[in-house]
Amino acid sequence: LYGIPVKGTHAHSWVMCFGDEREAFHEYAKALPNNCVFLVDTYDTLQGVRNAIETGRWLRETGHEMVGIRLDSGDLAELSIAARKLLDEAGFPNARIVASNDLDEYQIEMLHKTGAKINVWGVGTRLATGGDQPALGGVYKLAAIRERDPETDQLGPWQHRIKLSEQPIKTTNPGLQQVRRFSDENGFLADAIYEVDQPPQSDWTILPFKNETPLTLPSRLRAEDLLVPIFRNGQRVYDPPSATEARDRRQAQIDQLPDRYARLNEPETFPVGLEQSLHQLKLQLIQEAKSTIPQA
């Protein structure tokens, strides 16, 4: 599917449909002899591992090899260590141990630190729902407008617009904007939001949203504009990458993010902010908008 090999295991219901677990594993092995990952925790996890080993021996006798087992409940660290010992002693050192059960990046890191003998992480629920932030708190706001001349029917120049708010984060940024990412040989440095037709001609100065302490970025740095048009005038103007290309780009981007921003525990906030001239324009428009508000 999308060039990605489809892998998986059977469900608990498969085991429960048979008289016992050994029979369920044996029938599964007959049906899919080259893709056997046995779910071992329907009744008793370690006994399930022993039953998987028994079926694995039968597979080996018929010219096939068990892929591994899957743990889906209990103390995954402790059970994986015990399961690894049983598999190795039985002559299955290459059998993989798959773990699932509402895993996320924090649990996976904890299991790594506790010495869990897990080879494959099955992440489903937390991957699909985004546990930390299940919804994107973003909205569209008008940032610029062009008026049509009624006599010539021509569009005039862009005019800046701004929406004020008692909450600074909800005061909008004016103008047609682009985001430029700066990096050097050590990875990403900062993202600058700037007016598309007013990029600085020399060094850049941005004011990060986190603290608004000016950050200067020399023009010699590597830079990439991030916003790419997908549609223009109702027509698609972008060829999407394949799933493999998207995955490779994602990994390459993560590899360029310094550890202080990428770490799970107490990461620093990556600098993102307005380029200085856009920041000054925003302050000017805020003052102009406030001056039109009648005083109580």
List the helices and strands and how they pair.
Layout: H1 12-16, H2 21-31, E1 37-39, H3 45-61, E2 68-71, H4 76-89, E3 96-99, H5 105-113, E4 120-121, H6 125-129, E5 144-145, E6 159-160, E7 177-184, E8 187-195, E9 204-208, E10 215-217, E11 222-225, E12 231-232, E13 235-236, H7 243-255, H8 259-262, E14 272-275, H9 276-291
Parallel strand pairs: 1-2, 2-3, 3-4, 8-14
Antiparallel strand pairs: 5-6, 7-8, 7-11, 9-10, 9-14, 12-13
Helix pairs in contact: 2-3, 3-4
Q: CATH H-level name of the largest domain... which superfamily?
A: nicotinate phosphoribosyltransferase
CATH architecture of the largest domain: Alpha-Beta Barrel
Biggest sheet character:
6 strands, mixed
Query: What is the total domain count?
Result: 2
What would CATH call the class of the largest domain?
Answer: Alpha Beta
Helix amount, in percent? 25-40%
What does this structure look like?
The chain has helices at 12-16, 21-31, 45-61, 76-89, 105-113, 125-129, 243-255, 259-262, 276-291, and strands at residues 37-39, 68-71, 96-99, 120-121, 144-145, 159-160, 177-184, 187-195, 204-208, 215-217, 222-225, 231-232, 235-236, 272-275. With 296 residues, the protein is α/β, with parallel strands linked by helices. The chain has 2 domains: 12-128, Aldolase class I (TIM Barrel), CATH 3.20.20; 160-291, nicotinate phosphoribosyltransferase (Alpha-Beta Barrel). The strands form 4 sheets. The protein has a 6-stranded mixed sheet with strand order 10-9-14-8-7-11. A 4-stranded parallel sheet has the order 1-2-3-4, with helices on one face. Strands 5-6 form a two-stranded antiparallel ribbon. Helix 2 runs parallel beside helix 3 (45-61) and helix 3 (45-61) packs parallel to helix 4 (76-89). It starts with 11 loop residues before the first helix and ends in a 5-residue tail after the last helix.
